[in-house]
Amino acid sequence: MKQTNVKPADGKLGILVVGCGAVATTFMTGVLMARKGLAKPIGSMTQYDKIRVGDGAEKQYLHYKDIVPLATLDDIVFGCWDVYPQNAYQAAVYAEVLKAKDIEPVRDELEQIVPMKAAFDPNYAKRLTGDNVKDCQTRWDMVEALRKDIEDFKASTGVSRIVVIWAASTEIYVPYDEAYHGTLAKLEAAMKADDREHIAPSMCYAYAALTKGCPFIMGAPNTTVDIPAMWELAEKTRMPIAGKDFKTGQTLVKSGFAPILKVRNLGLAGWFSTNILGNRDGLVLDEPANFHTKEVSKLSTLETILRKEDQPDLYGNIYHKVRINYYPPRNDNKEGWDNIDIFGWMGYPMQIKINFLCRDSILAAPLLLDLTLLSDLAARAGRYGIQRFLSFFLKSPMHDYTKGEEAVNDLFEQYVMLKNAIREMGGYEADEKID
57: Cβ–Cβ under 8 A, 6 or more apart, which residues? Predict the structure, then answer.
């Protein structure tokens, strides 16, 4: 490893997950099983990917841990919040994602992970009815209660660092409003005034995490940290933030396939995407106000890859539609259908159809591992604010839309950003460019 200014990963790393549902318990169980040598963390970039560092005679391909000081799986200590009181073992069994043989060997450890009471407002997720909820009178009370939870977790476990990651449900859409979200002072005033319309519970988690020195990652499409007030807070506290929405199934396909059309200069007339899923995520998204939040994040991908202003003949009139349907028999086994209407030489039409029968939590779990380990690394490297290099893992990557910046959604460009950041933090030259 070259000489770097990144602080070493000394001590234990606490990972506090908001939500103890299918995604969170699949993540926790997989990490606990992997560190016993009973499972493999497949799909995790931090555990498997190798990237080139150096050139010529100096060129070598190394795992991330051999380039930068990453926390190991043995370093991780889990905690969580949830509206349901069941411990992580009970929640994993209930989720029906993993088989008993993949849960039972770590039952004792999972049973020790008991959710703290959630800061919850039923108006933001009307389909959830849990009773493991904090008795907070105001939004500011939520912030203070969550800050105490973080303090207590650190004291009781002895962890030296904590990362907070949201793996809970999609909240109803909270549009950016400069009057409440434009500056940190405005955000704090709205929290203290108990403005429940403009301050989502997730914003209280993010505020509490950042002010307690914890990086915060938004794994749902919620507005939460995607507002200037939170960027200001991340700068002030010198903490990394990342979001939003884990890129697991259909959008992963879209961000990887759309570049094929772009580099081959094929036209796109329309892209119709539909999903069926039956887990708690599907239940919440069955509520139109919650679906709208998801729709906004899923729709942004295509238009930034296939830009009509660059190629009006090819992408000047794309019809893009996204649908999500709640279908309980499938549970966590999501199915995504994509119908893609393309056109080629002399405008002749062609079709591509993709049917992705995926497992939502199996695809999401390695993203939680990578995002938490890399956010912890970023914090130790002195990186703060929006972590654009984590866009690779996210459906609707954060960017400064107040200055006209566009998100990078092309999967291969995102991968270059990720590799360059790892190289830089490892003391190597960031030697790949995005055209």
Answer: none
Euclidean distance between the first and the last CA atom of the chain, given in angstroms as a whole number? 29
Q: Within 10 Å of residue 139's Cβ, how many Cβ atoms?
A: 23
Residue 274 — φ and ψ, nearest 5°? Answer: -135, 150
Residues 212-228 have a mean pLDDT of 97
- Provide the token pair at 428: 């190597």
User: At how many degrees (to 10) do helices 250-264 and 288-305 cross?
Assistant: 20
CB 2 within 8 A of CB 427: yes
At 210, list the tokens. 């950042």
Residues sharing a CB contact under 8 Å with residue 152, sequence separation 6 or more, in sequence order: none
Sign of CA dihedral 135, 140, 146, 147: negative
Cα-Cα-Cα-Cα torsion 189, 151, 76, 164, nearest 10 degrees, comes to -10
pLDDT at residue 128 greater than cutoff 90: no
Question: What 3 state SS string does 324-389 have?
Answer: EEECHHHCCEEEEEEEEEEECHHHCEEEEEEEEEEEHHHHHHHHHHHHHHHHHHHHHCCCCEECHH
What would the pLDDT profile of 27-75 be if each residue is shown by its tens digit?
Answer: 999 999 999 999 999 999 999 999 999 999 999 999 999 999 999 999 9
Q: Would you list the DSSP string of 94-105?
A: HHT-S-GGGTGG
Sorted by sequence, the CB contacts under 8 Å of residue 279 that are 6+ apart come out as: 21, 22, 95, 331, 332, 360, 361
pLDDT tens-digit profile of 357-408?
999 999 999 999 999 999 999 999 999 999 999 999 999 999 999 999 989 9
Report the pLDDT value the prediction gives residue 283, as an integer from 0 to 100: 77
Q: What average pLDDT does this structure show over 261-286? A: 89
Phi and psi at residue 146, to the nearest 5°: -70, -35
Q: Kindly tell me the burial class for residue 334, based on how many C-beta atoms sit within 10 Å of its own C-beta (0-12, 13-18, 19 or more).
A: buried
